[in-house]
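Materials and Methods. Structural model of D-3-phosphoglycerate dehydrogenase. The 363-residue sequence of D-3-phosphoglycerate dehydrogenase from Mycolicibacterium duvalii was retrieved and submitted for structure prediction as follows.
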Amino acid sequence: MSTRQRPRLVYERWTDPVAGDILELSDIEVVKLDLSMPEERGWAALESAHGYQVATRTDVAGIEAGAQWLAGPELIKRCENLLAVCSAGAGYDVIDVEACTRAGIAVCNNSGPGAEAVAEHALGFMLDLAKKITVADRALRSGPLGDRLRLQGSQLFGKTLGVVGLGAIGGRLVELCAPFGMEVLVFDPYLDDVSADARGVRRVTLTELVERSDFVQVTCPLTAETQGLIGAEQFAAMKSTAFFITTARGPVHDEDALLQALETGSIAGAGLDVFHEEPPRQDNPLLRLENVVATPHTAGITVEAARDIAVATANQWQTLFAGFRPPRLLNPDVWPRYCDRFQDILGVRPTTSSHEDLTEVHT
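The predicted structure was written out as tokens:
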């Protein structure tokens, strides 16, 4: 009879310390990965890990050769005992999902818990841009105001909202915009008409969405399908009065094409929480434009979201190492091989069922 091995989880940081508090109640060895230490110490921790809470690109930005701590082919090859990797939030571009699947590694994210924060931020961009709040604030602080009518804005009521990617964030944004009586168009290849009707939105092509929308909101993850999805052609097709807003990932849109559209007046403005390079350099030309409102990838950073994500993260690791199917498994095809590897490495075989509620121990 096989003896179960104690699982080892390596993490870079939690969004809130409550994750560590929760995991202390579990039979899981938790090890912190200090990116500032000599890399041999990091590899020593990871090469014996069964689970890895992946560092984000922002975490490794200031670390020399920091990309090695993302879940790519090099890390996967070196970490032979690795069973599962998880991203901190909804985005999972820090993980090579295909490479993990080939290696029999389960990939999870934490979509859902931070959706409220990001959706509210996206709505904030809409209101700010339409009402020219930031523009008016800058004008008021910079000197004599002059004619305030030049700060005339517009309203959200009755406008058309185009959402690219109707996941947890996009879905919540649609709910938040309901009081404004907006028509909502959605481009999402994974959304069917029945689900669209239930949410009161209409499925359209990307072309129709950018042509008709007053606000183009990008809330999809960064994948091979979505990289470069919004480029010069899409910006050229937008209304000159329309606003482009993204809380997704920078590479989903073409920054050079966006800059040109903003400088030429092809579109009215942009609300940007993400950039190709993060944090963006101070000389990024987008940051000098009056019709751009920008934040440094902080849409999901609220007290409430940080705690909710941390709780969900800890719960998911408990679920994984308890031998259940995790709630946010991104590569379900890996499950049979994952179960074989889990049994070989930890000594027990996972169940094929999901575990809905491990939260009672966290209250």
